[in-house]
């Protein structure tokens, strides 16, 4: 995979280092040559120049890129790079770093951004997840389709404990995609039983996230318990049942 990373600072270098370790072809673009020595990156190709200029992106072979990552410390530059990558070079996937959370609303498909990664939001989410069991925490925003990756740690005494995945009345626009239990990831199926302390990961819309948060709140615990007791396997919408069905077993 050919990846162009704009911004050779600590964030861009860390991304490049991981991708290089996985055998990908990486080009790092930065406005200053000094970062090359500081980055200690081995195997990366470098282009020195302003990535907001088309000729600089051409030198980075942006037209061949599978992904362009705009990882500078300047939100304006990250937006322009994402837009150029999409509109001028037809890059199929762009990732934009959001430095100021107030600018996050700009990082959408209109600016050519597929995935917006807000470091402050992510750090806040990780802190909240570490200290607040029982709250839905947004980890990441996928701007295409306004989808989000959210997490929820199930309290020990929550009504969903001991219920199967198919018994829970998930909102229609919510897909349970993973369960992390004792550090082990589980691909959920309708028959999996939820336990206290499970970390649940969801792909959902913004509206679905709010519905999910409302479903899990203490104020609705009684109603949720009633729905679990009455609904059984029919309480889960058919769309959600399909989305939480485990992947097919590999062929023998």
From TrEMBL:
PROSITE patterns associated with the record: RCK_C, RCK_N
Family matches, as SUPFAM superfamilies: NAD(P)-binding Rossmann-fold domains, TrkA C-terminal domain-like
Keywords: Ion transport, NAD, Potassium, Potassium transport, Transport
Renumbered residue ranges of the record's region Disordered: 229-252
Residue ranges occupied by any RCK N-terminal domain in the UniProt entry: 1-117
GO MF term list: potassium ion transmembrane transporter activity
KW Chloroplast (keyword) present: no
One GO cellular component term noted in the UniProt record for this chain: plasma membrane
Presence of keyword Transport: yes
Domain of life of the native organism: Bacteria
All copies of domain RCK C-terminal, residue ranges: 137-218
Protein name (Swiss-Prot/TrEMBL): Trk system potassium uptake protein TrkA
């Amino acid at each position: 995979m050919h990846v162009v990373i704009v911004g050779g600072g600590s964030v861009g270098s860390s991304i490049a280092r991981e991708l290089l370790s996985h055998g990908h072809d990486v080009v790092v673009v930065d406005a200053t040559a000094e970062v090359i020595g500081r980055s200690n990156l081995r195997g990366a190709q470098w282009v020195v120049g302003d990535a907001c200029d088309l000729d600089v992106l051409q030198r980075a072979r942006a037209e061949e890129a599978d992904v362009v990552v705009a990882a500078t410390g300047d939100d304006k530059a990250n937006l322009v790079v994402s837009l150029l990558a999409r509109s001028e070079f037809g890059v199929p996937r762009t990732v934009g770093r959001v430095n100021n959370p107030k600018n996050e609303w700009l990082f959408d498909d209109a600016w050519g951004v597929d995935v917006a990664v807000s470091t402050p939001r992510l750090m806040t989410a990780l802190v909240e997840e570490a200290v607040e069991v029982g709250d839905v925490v947004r980890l990441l925003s996928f701007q295409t389709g306004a989808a989000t990756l959210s997490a929820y740690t199930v309290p020990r005494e929550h009504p969903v404990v001991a219920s199967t995945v198919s018994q829970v009345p998930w909102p229609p626009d919510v897909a349970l995609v993973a369960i992390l239990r004792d550090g082990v990831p589980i691909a959920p199926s309708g028959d999996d039983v939820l336990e206290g302390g499970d970390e649940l990961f969801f792909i959902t819309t913004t509206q679905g996230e709010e519905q999910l948060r409302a479903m899990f709140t203490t104020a609705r615990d009684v109603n949720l318990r009633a729905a679990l007791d009455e609904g059984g396997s029919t309480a889960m919408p058919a769309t959600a049942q399909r989305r939480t069905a485990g992947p097919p077993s590999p062929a023998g």
